[in-house]
Amino acid sequence: MTTMRQSVLWNRVNRVFLYLAITALFILVVFPFYWMIVTSLQPQDSVMSVPPQLWPTHPTFQNYIDAWNSAPWLRYFGNTLFVAVASTLISLTTSSLAAFAFACINFKGKEALFSLVLSVMMIPAATTLIPNFLIIRTLGWYDKFYALIIPFAASVFGIFLLRQYFMSMPKELWEAAQIDGASRLRYFRSIALPLAKPAIVTIAINSFLGSWTSFLWPTVMTQSQNKQLIEVALNSFLGEKGQQWSQLAAASVFTTVPIVVLFFFVQRQFIEGIGGGGVKG
What we know:
Blueprint: H1 2-40, H2 62-69, H3 73-104, H4 110-119, H5 129-139, H6 146-149, H7 156-168, H8 171-179, H9 184-195, H10 197-212, H11 216-221, H12 230-241, H13 245-275
Helix pairs in contact: 1-13, 2-13, 3-7, 3-10, 10-13, 12-13
């Protein structure tokens, strides 16, 4: 009886520590975003007040108006959305086709080629920056949207994740499709892809967010203002505004909100895609 009580007590203590750890982690993750919102609602002369205000005494939206009118944000949003959608669609197409080939088609050197593809993940992106830049300049794509889309036309992570999903599908599905006279392309389009929807959604989210938050590559590849993406524009805005922290916070809020809202609506599918293993036979 005593042992049972000790076990129950120990479980309760563990649960309390777990909740405390989760709460602390939540605060660490959410507080910077909360503080950004608070700063964006404060007058400039109140931002550096001591002690700092956890909520503005006199909240104002003037910072948002001033920040929005200081730059062509609609153009930047449009550029970023176009690049993100285009690169995501192309990446999904190439990744799904390559993954299906690695998972379901037997050809000589398949395992060696797949290992070579995976090895690309080990190469830091910074080491390929200059070679990729020289290639883009040679192709005449500098300061064009091609330079922001084509280099991200394939995803090694997407190929790996979709390959795992396709490999976990029962072979009986392909055998039944063959009996019905389906080709591999039809099986891929009508059966394999719909069953791999969680992985496809995960890859789409990962690719879209990667394009939306990309900074280094667009900074190197674009020169004219009408080709700038949102992160590059925000950095330029930082340089122009200097110590105008309230306007900087306001600009950061309305450039961050779209991806936060997007992830809020698709987080369940994202988690399913990462944690799932495809269809169980």
